[in-house]
Amino acid sequence: DQSFIFQALDEASRRDLAQAAHTRRHASGEVIFTMGAPGHSLMAIAEGHVRISMLSPTAREVTLADLGPGEVFGEIALLDGRERSADARALTNCTLVVLERSALFELLQRSPKLSIRLIELLCERIRRSDERMMEIAFLDLPPRLARMVLRVTVAAPGSEARPLPRLSLSQTEIANMIGSSRENVNRCLRKWQKAGLIDLKDGWLVILDRAGLARVASLD
Ligand code: CMP
Fold first, then answer.
1. Mean residue pLDDT across the chain
2. Which PROSITE patterns did the record assign (predicted)?
């Protein structure tokens, strides 16, 4: 119901959606599906958070996205009929609303608005991937790391929450989000701590000087 793409449906279609969908629960840490598996369903997150990631041949992980309530995943394999393009894992206990291909296609045929929302979702993901690709291709670690820290500590668009001044991700998780190693991330964070941009305590990264970090983020 909180899902942007399904808000496109009229009431009757929403009732059909509710009938066709089933819910699935996953405990924190559980694998939802793995890259390469066949996939015929789309999932909307009702509760909890899900991490979308990929493993390198040497088992290093890169995080593609962390998704929360109202967000949708699994649309790629569902739409193109191929295998899952990435791994999905529950970051917290999760409740997912699962919709099979036949039910979604029926709804898409009835609602052009739903198709457009789904296309908008794919466009948004391509934009974000392009941005990440640009950062990995052109930026050194400090501006890349600064951008990530600023990005994940800014309130979501439309939300009234103030930007969170701190970050509770581990340094390995941070490294996985920007395609770096924990050691390099640690070195950079220590430098920023000495320079008074951030503080590191009790596993938290606390932002002390947001404007300073923004200056680092804009350098290449
Ligand atoms: P699918 O390929 O079915 O399974 C993996 C899912 O991860 C994919 O559908 C998308 O829903 C999601 N996904 C893949 N790449 C990204 C990305 N770069 N950003 C956000 N979600 C992604």
1. 89
2. CNMP_BINDING_2 (PS00889), CNMP_BINDING_3 (PS50042), HTH_CRP_2 (PS51063)
